[in-house]
Amino acid sequence: MSEFEPKIVAFVCNWCTYAGADLTGTSRIKYAPNVRVIRFPCTGRIDFMLLLKAFANGADGIIVSGCHPNDCHYTSGNFHARRRWMVFRSLMDFIGIDVRRVHFAWISAAEGAKWAEFVNSVTADIKKLGPNENYQRLMDAGIA
Amino acid sequence: MSRIGVFVCHCGENISATVDCHKVAETCAKVPGVVHSVDYKYMCSDPGQNLIREAIKEKNLTGVVVAACSPRMHEPTFRRTCADSGLNPFLCEMANLREHCSWVHEKNDVTTEKAIDLVRILVEKVKRNKPLFPIKVPVTKTALVLGGGIAGIQAALDIANSGHKVIMVERDPSIGGHMSQLSETFPTLDCSQCILTPRMVEVAQHPNITLYTYSELESLDGFIGNFKVKIRKKARCVDEKLCTGCGLCTQKCPNKKIPSEFNTGLGTRTAIYVPFPQAVPNKPVIDKANCTYFQKGKCKLCEKICPTQAIRYDQQDEIISVDVGGIVLATGFNVLDTDFFPEYGYGKYKDVINGLQFERLASASGPTLGVMKRPSDGKTPETIVFIACAGSRDSAKGIEYCSKICCMYTAKHAMLYKHKVHHGKAYVFYMDIRAGGKMYEEFVRRAIEEDGVSYIRGRVSRIYEKNGKLIVKGADTLLGAQPMEIEADMVVLATAGVANAGAEELAQKLHVSYDPYHFFAEAHPKLRPVETNTAGIFLAGACQAPRDIPETVAQASGAASKVAALFSQDELTREPLIAVVHRTAPPIYSSCVGCFICQSACPYQAIEKEEIRTRDGKLIKTVAKVNPGLCQGCGTCVALCRSKSIDLQGYSHEQVYAEVISLLNRGEESNVGI
Lengths: 144, 674
Hints:
- The complex is a heterodimer of chains A (about 140) and B (about 675).
- Chain A is α/β, with parallel strands linked by helices.
- Chain A has helices spanning about 15-25, 50-55, 75-95, 110-130, 135-140, and strands at about 10-15, 35-40, 60-65, 100-105.
- Chain A has a 4-stranded parallel sheet with strand order 2-1-3-4, sandwiched between helices.
- In chain A, helix 1 crosses helix 4.
- The radius of gyration of chain A is 15 Å and the shape is globular.
- In chain B, the strands form 12 sheets. In chain B, strands 10-7-6-18-29 form a 5-stranded parallel sheet.
- At the A-B interface, helix 1, strand 2, helix 2 and helix 3 of A face helix 3, helix 4, helix 5, helix 17 and helix 18 of B.
């Protein structure tokens, strides 16, 4: 059986992390191909229901990343995201999704290398955790 | 039914070297809704763009996905291409196969699979894209300049000279600001008032400038191009139309011992006063707190003496409402308060003064008429010590920044002193000499080499009085921190430049952000230095950070050109990627329940209240409404809205949920919103 390749969805803001990931490309830094980036204007736009939806549809891991504190293109969107994330963590705990499956980060437009390292470390972490099976079993059984 | 076209670019070999572009196009052709899917060597080239143009027409496409480089690079290009063929540009999306895939992964099936995923999710998104149209906002071509110092004056004149109306508001009775208090200016030693006062007069006489002195901003509403401003014109107690500025009242006023603000407390003024002889406007104000009539009920000497009967004791503050399109903030700075320096005895010893006070002592229009006399007994100081970085670069004083102007003005002060007291000794205690600027370093060298000012690298720990002398205890760090004591007759502290006392309150009124030191914050420290985060409000001068006159003037002209550029168009065109509140037909009208959590989260104050009423005026419900002029499209409100009543155009719920679901369910079409 081949090695488990996790499905990781990244929700990133357009101004910092998306541009940072562009820089990773321009710098030709290689990283694990498990991540699919979905672009948002700001981490403040990221509705955490989307994260639940991603898990419900079989995501093994999730990345949320935006501008560093005080660097938000929209002044304060990233602070809202951070506050929401703090609350969401408890909810995850409560509903039984391993908190380690979500990684929250600040990656700026200048941190191309950091994006590559971050993706690699998240991919490695999720590989260790294994597939997000709890829910998948129910899905496979046609219940959820 | 959607008819989507997919265009996969090889980018020469940049993408095709690791991604099998042909396979991507082939696979995506099978995605439901895709009616056209091709790959091509260079999509952004003319023939490549023609492929898109022709396909839109021939296949009647309702959406386009270009799978190529980063949308941050070519999204505008391809959106224009679509617009050329009559497809709404917002029906075009880009999948980032280069920066996010081919350049960062090895050549194999996994990479191609990722590329297919990236295209697929955007196909699902674009199926749900709606045609959007640029938002047009009218522009009121009048500018408001807050602050009448050199920054405000320069900005106002530049805007007025470009043909637009300007309203200038100054808090003090006269414009001129700190620059009018300065004696001479570095590095040329030309007299400050000689270069400033002609500009002050120009402001007063300019047909395009309306000047409100002794006035403050009361409130601000609206948004870029459409601000509504209320100005509080404080009661001068003088009818400006009748007053000729003859000055009889200021001569006759019996209350003559009030410390003059203009002379930084070193001189006196009367209760009815003009701050300084060259004041613009040259009309007096009554200082009610010090006026005998206002305090004791009798006197009225000024009223009796006034030849034009211009005195109005019963004058009230007036609120003036104006509409403006752009605002320049030029409210300047202040110098650090006395109580910051107990160890230097500032405020305790009369001969320990700050840099601004020295300016007045050195100024020909100052209390000593430019003769170097110390404040305590009027004697000529034979030995003078200047202390640079008094407060600046000192985390213990809460000011970690460099005030930038002090190195230069301290050199100037020492030089001016030596020019006036040839035999005197001048010492400067400094940390570093920061003389970056045209002819600045040369100027400091001149002070040291030609005028013989002694520069001592080290800090002063204490100043105390002994036998009528001020003993300055310090250390010379270039001589191994050797302790030093200088018996001085006068000490000048180059006190830190700090934000104005009311800066925070003003920033809140204007919805402008400020830094930890209460200086106003620019939108970007390098690339948008004169803009604030609030569209239409610009910064000039020392209200943003301490800065010297040349820089202030340059920045003021920069801010003025931003305003002129804003006013060069009759309407502003803005990207329609903004939030909208759900509206529907009666009886629901909107799913919005009016909780206004969105309002508290919006960084731009873009959320307004909208009352929905029946024909006879009965209130049905109050819902949120997004002001399209203010909304910047961050979407924070969208994620917060509990009833999911706000959506972000271009990143709608429907679009992003479809992306997530389709990404994780390969080969199955997401049914979100379709």
